[in-house]
Amino acid sequence: MLSLVGSGKTLMIIPQALIFDMDGLMLNSEPLYQQAWQAAAQDLGFTLEAELYLSLVGRSSEETDRLFGQMYGDQFPVQAFNDRWEEQWRSLVQQQGIPLQPGLLPLLDWVEQQGLPKAIGTSSNAAEAELCLGLAGIRDRFAAIVTADQVTAGKPAPDIFLAAAAQLGMRPAQCLVLEDSNAGVQAAAAAGIPVVMVPDLQSPTAASQAIAQQIFASLHEVLTWLRGL
């Protein structure tokens, strides 16, 4: 690791392991979640604006439940909403499948060619992750998968990424996190893990811009960068 003078960041030379976020980073699944959430809210008599949905991307279900309570008050039927959006979402993914983000397969191929261990650290629960990864055809490419229901606190807390690094047998500073959400970038920073952001639905905040090693438009760019380290 080398310090970048005056930048406040640490420059990753060669990561010894990679930790991938799932939704938005590897899978183009966020539009399906948004569609399911908005339909479920409408069915229950509420309006879930796109801006509000975007602010919740990458956060754990417990965190989103808490924020819904703050925004809509005690009258918001959290459990009914969660049951309904999950039903809507499962129907959508079974009908439409889940496309991979551009550049993912070449990136995974390169990581495997380098012999670098890799894990997934996702805010989805285990059942959702298994379904998504299976439908996307990449489940077998990851030996270690840490989901939000396997840790005490989800993103932006560091628990998911710390658990993923531990499962890989690595210290946090030896890893590199790839994330699309601001909450995920915060979680990586809290875990002491260098992070690269590839924004999907969210634009990077000023905090994410200050934290991230790099911000790229696609996984193709991530691969080019890694090859040059």
Protein architecture, described:
This protein folds into 2 domains: 2-28 and 99-227, HAD superfamily/HAD-like (Rossmann fold, 3-Layer(aba) Sandwich), CATH 3.40.50; 30-96, DNA polymerase, domain 1 (Orthogonal Bundle), CATH 1.10.150. The chain contains 10 helices and 8 strands. The strands form 2 sheets. It has a 6-stranded parallel sheet. A two-stranded antiparallel ribbon has the order 1-2. The longest helix has 19 residues, at 78-96. It is an alpha/beta fold. Residues 1-8 have low confidence and may be disordered. Helix 1 crosses helix 4 (78-96) and helix 5 runs parallel beside helix 10 (219-227). The protein is 47% helix and 11% strand.
Domain count: the total is 2
Class by SSE composition: alpha/beta
Say what the CATH topology of the largest domain is. Answer: Rossmann fold
The CATH homologous superfamily name of the largest domain equals HAD superfamily/HAD-like
The largest sheet is:
6 strands, parallel
Strand content: 5-15%
Summarize the helices and strands and which ones pair or pack.
Layout: E1 2-3, E2 10-11, E3 17-20, H1 30-43, H2 50-56, H3 61-72, H4 78-96, H5 104-113, E4 118-121, H6 126-136, E5 144-146, H7 159-167, E6 175-179, H8 182-191, E7 195-197, H9 206-211, E8 214-215, H10 219-227
Parallel strand pairs: 3-4, 3-6, 4-5, 6-7, 7-8
Antiparallel strand pairs: 1-2
